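README: folding subset

This subset contains proteins for which both the sequence and a predicted structure token string are available. Records are stored as plain text. Below is the entry for CvpA family protein (241 residues), shown exactly as it appears on disk.
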Amino acid sequence: MDGSIVSLILDLMVILITVGFIWYGVRRGFLVMLVNTCGRLLSCIVAYIASRALATTIYNVYIHDRLVESISESISGTLSESEASVQVSVILQELPGFLRNMVYGLFGDAATINETVGNALDGSVTAITSTIVDEIVYPIVYLVLQCLLFLVLFACLKIIISALSETLRNLRRCILIGVPDMLAGAALGAVEGVLTVFVVVVIIQLLIYCSGGQIPFLGDDEIQSTHLFRVFYNLSPFVDN
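--- output ---
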């Protein structure tokens, strides 16, 4: 598939989602859409804030020390203290396969990582491993954890808000009727469409991170050649800068 076709598909996806929610807003009316839109916005904000705190806590409490200890034990018998500082690639080989692929996909191959990080390392095997984990592994694990937690929290909160909005469906005619109701619903539908596009972008980012940036025709060139999709992608707080 040509890269330009992928870019067109991504832009069309943004348009279709937004137009779909505008039509949905016209049909549902102002009151239901007000609850839905405010709920989706609140869900995004709460899920984002909570995902940051949870991702940091989970990594520090359950992942960091175990990862450093596991890697240190694996390489301590094969590398001397003097060799360890120049053998970043050997340390990376001890990472789980999917995590190693993510590191290579986002930071470059072993030679590149060895060049940029290895020269700055000095100390024991454990200290060097800890540095590798903190500088290379942590940013990736944190992003993936945060994306996953955001999506889970957002989905749970959205279920609660949706249940509330369903109770208001029969009240819409008591508040606004006719064209004003439809126009107000359409405006809120547009807002909800934009928020939905943002959630879809997070899902795509998560897939890109987990694949190590190796998804065919979904690289940075294809994304940046889009007109609409790249706006959401570049504004996302989950982009690894």
